[in-house]
Amino acid sequence: MTNIVWGDVRSKLRGVVGENNFITWIAPLGLTGIESGVARLSAPTNFIANWVNRNFADPIVRALNGAGANVHRIEIAVEARVPGATAAKTMTGAQRVQETLGKSSDAPALPASAPTPAAPVTAAAPSGSEDVAGAPLDQRYTFDNFVVGKPNALAHAAARRVAEGAAVTFNPLFLYGGVGLGKTHLMHAIAWELQTRNPEAKVLYLSAEQFMYRFVQALRERQIMDFKSLFRSVDILMVDDVQFIAGKDSTQEEFFHTFNALIDQNKQIVISADRAPGEIKDLEERIKSRLQSGLVVDLHPTDYELRLGILQQKADQNRKAYGEVSIAPDVLEYLAHRITTNVRVLEGALTRLFALASLLGREITLDMAQDTLADILRSSERKVTVEEIQRKVAEHYNIRLSDMIGPKRLRTIARPRQIAMYLAKHMTTRSLPEIGRRFGGRDHTTILHGVRKVEELRGSDSQLAEDLELLKRLLES
Ligand code: ADP
Ligand code: MG
Predict the structure, then answer these.
(1) DSSP secondary-structure letter at 299?
(2) What residues does each domain of the chain span?
(3) Which ligand neighbours the alpha carbon of 155 most closely?
(4) CB 302 within 8 A of CB 343
(5) Distance of CA 98 from the midpoint of ligand 1 (Å)
(6) Would the CB of 184 count as within 6 Å of ligand 1?
(7) pLDDT of 441 higher than 60
(8) ω into residue 172 within 30 of 0, thus cis?
(9) pLDDT in tens, 149-193
């Protein structure tokens, strides 16, 4: 029973606390039980537990009670989690709702009390669109705030073109890509831009999930004609996460008609999905082919440079939000290297660091980042082990593996050993004492000395810097 309730509660909370807070603080929580008015939650770290207790206890209690529980307070225990079940595992809203509703349930089969989809992240839709209330747009999701790199350049250019609002050239524009790569951001950016250029334009942005809820509601309240005329009266229709309507037959049907009606009127349509049209299962063929008839562009997984660029931009924004927090320069590079999953996780990591640093009045250092983000880092960990690093480094410098852990202090052996220590520190989540143990039981200060030495040399010794890059690449592949 608790499981079902928690799924609902979490979706509700997402609307209440906003997307970023949700990812950072609520998503990592689990509900372990409810007993005499106390809801027991689990959190992956102390820091999250404290922060949630201080900032989100009330909304959680309210959401629990709203979902039918009867609690007056929460208790959060810190729970060492199994790797993989961590905060970084985020789901799309669609997945989450699907989880709650059950996969096969098509729209009309919903119970009358079905919850409306999560409330908007940020309020204030552009003024011109009052009469076509779509989902409100997030003010941060503008073109100005979108960092362009190789993986998203094409999608960005296409979005820009549509946002110029000139003659409709490709219709629909279909954006697809994995979770957290910027699809929603680009769609909001298009909406903002169009609205700014032409305040009269009726821009309707909503998720496929909301499209379905509206449709179901219209059916229930016998206002299907209003529904139809509303959707046919817009100038630009944007439907986010369209994969959500796959398998939901009557919603698909209605979507298809809306789509055709707008295309016939030469109105721009922008669609996003988590995969290419042809790969969406349980989507009708005629819809697939319709979706493919315009321009289909994908957002590729981020690369290191793009991640670093995004982190730098978000760090600047956080600096404004959190005031006097300073961040050591190597932290961003480290995060860009280590968190390769999706941008949302990167953002969440940064938010958590800034929150902690401002709370404690501390600088954000590499060590602090590693401690605070242990759960996220663990989940995006490449499976590189200290032993592998030792082996590769030994091979590269042509020394014996046993010398890695042995006592020899000869430069030709000690230097590669320090390089292995450095790589172990940067490429694994092992702590210094743990690394020390794997280097023949050396003290953590010896490891730290080795790491520092290599960091220092990296700047002046270009051969060594090159070796490091090469070794990293070898180990990552
Ligand atoms: P998607 O819809 O593809 O799952 P989102 O658009 O919601 O992803 O992006 C997730 C988060 O990452 C958002 O907060 C968004 O602002 C941010 N983000 C993604 N790509 C970029 C980018 N290129 N520049 C700046 N922020 C980005
Ligand atoms: Mg999205």
Answers:
(1) E
(2) 2-101, 122-298, 304-380, 386-476
(3) 1
(4) yes
(5) 22
(6) yes
(7) yes
(8) yes
(9) 999 999 999 999 999 987 777 899 999 998 899 999 999 999 999
Tell me which residue has its CA closest to atom 10 in ligand 1: 180
Cα 326 to averaged position of ligand 1 atoms, centre (Å): 24
**Which residues are near ligand 2, the ion (C-beta closer than 5 Å)?**
183-184
Q: What is the pTM of this model?
A: 0.60
Compute the Cα dihedral for 83, 84, 89, 91 and give only its sign.
Answer: negative
Closest ligand 1 atom to 309 CA: 24
CATH class for domain 386-476?
Answer: mainly alpha
CB 126 within 8 A of CB 163: no
Listing DSSP states for 6-22 in one string gives: HHHHHHHHHHHH-HHHI
Q: Report which ligand 1 atom has the smallest distance to the Cα of 240.
A: 2
Residue with the smallest CA separation from ligand 1 atom 18 is 182
CATH number of 122-298: 3.40.50.300
Residue 101 neighbours by CB distance under 10 Å: 20
CA of 61 to the centre of ligand 1 (A): 30
User: What is the fold, at CATH topology level, of the domain defined by 304-380?
Assistant: Helicase, Ruva Protein; domain 3 (1.10.8)
The verdict on the CB of residue 93 being under 6 Å from ligand 1 is no
Ligand nearest to the CA of 312: 1
Q: How far is residue 313's CA from residue 463's CA, in Å, rounded to a whole number?
A: 32
DSSP 231-254: HHT-SEEEEE-GGGGTT-HHHHHH
Ligand nearest to the CA of 240: 2
- Residue 146 Ramachandran class (φ > 0 left, ψ -120 to 50 alpha, else beta): beta
Residue 459 has which token pair? Answer: 């700047």
Residue found by looking up tokens 């016939």 in the block? 264
Residue range 97-108: average pLDDT?
A: 31
Kindly report the CATH number that applies to the domain delimited by 2-101.
Answer: 3.30.300.180
The residue type at 459: G
The residue whose two tokens read 């390089």 is 419
Listed in order, strand segments (DSSP E) in 126-265 are 173-177, 203-207, 236-240
195 lines ligand 1 (CB under 6 A): no
At residue 124, what is the residue type? A
Ligand positioned closest to the Cα atom of 243: 2
Residue 121, pLDDT > 60, answer no
Residues paired with residue 175 on neighbouring β-strands, in sequence order: 272, 297
Q: Is 146 in the pocket of ligand 1 (CB under 6 A)?
A: yes
- The whole-number pLDDT of residue 130 equals 38
